[in-house]
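[recover] target loaded
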């Protein structure tokens, strides 16, 4: 079972069309029905762990390494 952090990363991956594109953190949170406070806490944790990068304002994007991991999982599931 995926943790909320894994769901958050996967949702960010899909909202960014599997690219390194900045997305508003609250758009990701809203898709997962998370309150803004919880979204902020998840973003801080994932950023501290190097899994996402904070951009200006509320924009975030996957780290290059995290994108590579998700790309490989996506290819495995969709082959």
């Amino acid at each position: 079972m995926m943790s909320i952090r894994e769901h958050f990363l996967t949702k960010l991956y899909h909202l960014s069309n599997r690219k390194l594109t900045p997305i508003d953190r609250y758009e990701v949170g809203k898709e997962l029905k998370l309150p803004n406070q919880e979204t902020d806490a998840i973003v801080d944790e994932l950023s501290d762990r190097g899994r996402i990068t904070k951009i200006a304002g509320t924009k975030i994007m996957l780290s290059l390494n995290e994108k590579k991991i998700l790309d490989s999982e996506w290819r495995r599931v969709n082959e």
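[recover] notes: Helices lie at 4-15, 25-31, 36-48, 64-77.
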